[in-house]
Design goal:
heterodimer; A: 171 residues; alpha/beta; eight-stranded mixed beta sheet; B: alpha+beta; Sulfite Reductase Hemoprotein, domain 2; Sulfite Reductase Hemoprotein, domain 1; 4 domains
């Protein structure tokens, strides 16, 4: 069964399979899989040989800058929200996008409720897997819940102090 | 004061609609209690003992008359006819109905007020010097910097789900009137020897359990780097603040567990990385950005001294009530012919910080007539009219006195800071309001208050410390012992330049002992002070805890000896 997720603002079927640690068999052979960072470090060559694409799930306690050299060439990085109130992965995401320049798929997984979606989008997640009980259409709409922002995150907004430079000058 | 442009207004208006939808989904059962809790807190809505409490942010304590009139309307329509000013310069409503809160917030948005990030694990309302712009000892007006930071942290997506609440306090004067170092971050506006403006940053303060004062992180961050340094602190906290234990989640615990050297190294490293990146370019403030915000805080159109001059001494000689008020509630102003007027929210039998609809309305009219339409809320739960012409003082006093806002007790023993306590708050272990009243009654006469001089009595109904008991000269903390209300007393705390956390004196006192205990402590001071110029806190620091402790528990000593 594949999950539905938000990808670049649209609801799509997930083309990736998450392989949990501890599973001995490597499957689906030839497909696109997401493995934990720990497994990626141990079985990098085997995973690359067996799958069309390998994404990496990074714990939200990881030092993303220290880890990045090991995962910078991955087509997908997934970050975790153990609860929707745990914002550590938001900082990881902003650093990945803005400081490290990661420009491929950045996925949010875990306790992702509708009311987290807007903040995820602004922090650079272009791939969001809502919790199973969530209303997917409402989640999609939540991406643009607020149209204005004071500050830039990993998104298209220009900081308000920069925007105002182009307005009527002072005095 | 800062007034919204189309961007600010759109943000606040859209935010109301976002919350309206969240409230609707909660009432339909589509959001769980816990999910909705985190969402409503970020809009200022807290669950208290009997009803929701709505905290309204008052950015760095500045209000204008239109907002006061709207508050009068709101407390009548949605509450029981009064609001409450807090130690963080905010206004709380104790009785709104959840279903009506979206409408209430929509009405607030009409006058540029909101509850965004007033509660919850996010960056809270920024507090500042209530004498900003008028203080004799001010070197740099902090308000433009507060506003720039306010905008940066408001609905910041990366820092919207922090480990715990996060507070900034600003000062730009010699005297710290904003208890800045009790905040997670204290920002002091400073001038470099070469003349450049910058910020002295302190990090890691916080009251509540394990009260701590913020420690110096960086003695001079350049003026352009306010947001860069704030980002470095917030990101470090978001990453390393503990999330396994709510009582250990403040940034002060990271500081304590790491030690200051490691903590400072982490913040400075992040700051250096930000500066070196494209993010740093975005966060860099140009002189014109600061100037554009400073433009919102012009000096009012003061009149020349000759026009404003008044025979205050003559009026005071004829009217003892006016004389007392001038002496206690009126302070110098940097402009000749003008004064700063304190509005006491500590009338007898009045709940500290409460303000009725009628008082809101009178204050609105008074602001318009006598202080350029503006009012400020203070750290001590009083109000300030910052720009009053001397010749208006007598008329102003009569107007304030008519609505019980002229009690001449600013900074005295009856100017008690108190949280709402068990009468309202769901967290409290004990009552605060009744204790404040009992202490008040013991020192009701003005002569007694003047004799005692400046003293800070602070009362919290639980160790979360909203009444700032840890930084009171005499701090009182309500605790629950087997279902009874007891009170622990601390001595020697202070929130200002001489900031200190008070020390606990000994065993807790029962509800019927506490006011008498405070009276004995003050009696010790009156007996031991060198002269009238030595204040309670100075005396305490000189003589130490022992004589106070001996007197507080003298009955027990007698009982033990008998």
């Amino acid at each position: 069964m594949t999950a539905t997720l938000l990808r670049a603002g649209a609801l799509v079927q997930d083309s990736w399979t998450v392989i949990e640690d501890g599973r001995m068999e490597i499957e689906p052979v030839g497909g696109k899989v997401i493995v934990t960072l720990a497994r990626w470090r141990l079985e990098r060559d085997e995973l690359l040989a067996a799958h069309a694409a390998v994404g990496v799930l990074v714990p939200n306690t990881a030092d993303i800058e220290a880890v990045y050299p090991q995962i910078s060439d991955r087509p997908l990085i997934a970050l975790q929200f153990p609860t929707f109130t745990d914002g550590r992965a938001l900082s990881q995401a902003v650093v990945l996008r803005k400081r490290l320049g990661f420009d491929r798929e950045l996925r949010a997984v875990g306790d992702v409720i509708q009311d987290l979606v807007f903040w995820l989008g602004r922090c650079g997640f272009d791939s969001i897997v809502p919790r199973q009980d969530q209303n997917l259409e409402a989640c999609r709409a939540a991406l643009v819940e607020l149209s204005v922002a004071y500050q830039a995150a990993a998104d298209e907004h220009t900081p308000v102090w920069v925007r105002r430079r182009t307005q009527v000058p002072v005095h | 004061m800062y007034r919204y442009d189309a961007i600010d207004q759109a943000l606040v208006t859209q935010r109301v609609e976002q919350f309206r939808d969240q409230t609707r989904r909660y009432l339909k059962g589509e959001l769980t209690e816990d999910e909705f809790r985190h969402l409503r807190l970020r809009n200022g809505l807290y669950q208290q003992r009997f009803a929701p409490m709505l905290r309204i942010s008052v950015p760095y304590g500045l209000l204008e008359s239109a907002q006061l009139r709207k508050m009068a309307h709101i407390v009548r329509k949605y509450d029981k006819g009064y609001g409450h000013f807090t130690t963080r310069q905010n206004i709380q409503l104790n009785w709104p109905k959840l279903e009506q809160v979206p409408d209430l917030l929509a009405e607030l948005a009409e006058v540029q007020l909101h509850g965004i990030q007033a509660c919850g694990n996010d960056t809270r309302n920024i507090t500042s010097d209530y004498l900003a712009g008028v203080a004799v000892d001010e070197h740099i007006d902090p308000r433009p910097y507060c506003e720039l930071l306010r905008q940066y942290v408001a609905l910041h997506p990366e820092f919207y789900w922090l480990p715990r609440k996060f507070k900034f306090g600003f000062s730009g004067a010699t005297v710290d009137r904003a208890a800045t170092r009790t905040n997670d971050v204290a920002v002091h506006l400073v001038r470099h020897p070469d003349g450049a403006v910058g910020y002295r940053f302190f990090v890691g303060g916080g009251l509540g359990r394990q009260p701590m004062l913020a420690q110096e992180m960086n003695p001079f961050v350049p003026e352009s780097d306010l947001l860069r340094y704030a980002c470095a602190i917030l990101r470090t906290f978001n990453r390393f603040g503990r999330r396994d234990n709510i009582h250990k989640a403040r940034i002060k615990i990271v500081l304590r567990e790491w030690g200051i050297e490691r903590f400072r190294a982490a913040i400075e490293e992040e700051y250096a990385k930000i500066k070196a990146s494209s993010e740093g370019e975005e966060l860099l403030l140009l002189a014109e950005d600061i100037e554009r915000i400073r433009w919102h805080f012009p000096a009012p159109a003061y009149k020349a001294v000759s026009e404003a001059a008044a025979d205050l001494a003559g009026l005071a000689a004829r009217d003892a009530g006016f004389a007392a008020w001038i002496r206690r509630n009126v302070r110098p102003h940097k402009v000749p012919g003008y004064r700063v007027v304190f509005v006491s929210l500590k009338a007898p039998d009045h709940v500290a910080g409460d303000c009725t609809a009628e008082q809101f309305e009178t204050l609105a009219d008074i602001c318009d007539a006598h202080s350029f339409g503006e009012l400020r809320s203070t750290y001590d739960q009083n109000l300030v009219l910052a720009d009053v012409a001397e010749r208006d003082l007598h008329e102003l006093w009569r107007k304030l006195d008519a609505v019980k806002l002229a009690t001449p007790n600013i900074g005295l023993v009856t100017d008690i800071v108190s949280c709402p306590g068990l009468d309202f708050c769901g967290l409290a272990n004990a009552g605060s309001i009744g204790v404040a009243h009992d202490i008040y009654r013991r020192f009701d006469t003005l002569d007694a208050q003047y004799e005692i001089g400046p003293i800070r009595i602070t009362i919290s109904g639980c160790m979360n410390g909203c009444g700032h008991h840890s930084v009171g000269h005499i701090g009182i903390l309500g605790v629950d012992k087997h279902g009874e209300e007891w009170y622990q007393v601390t001595l020697g705390g202070s929130p200002g330049n001489d900031a200190a956390i008070g020390e606990r004196i000994g065993r807790a006192l029962a509800r019927d002992e506490i006011a008498g205990g405070v009276e004995r402590l003050i009696q010790v001071y009156l007996e031991l002070r060198v002269d009238e110029d030595e204040s309670f806190i100075e005396c305490y620091r000189r003589v130490g805890m022992a004589p106070f402790k001996a007197r507080l528990y003298e009955n027990e000593a007698e009982a033990a000896a008998a």
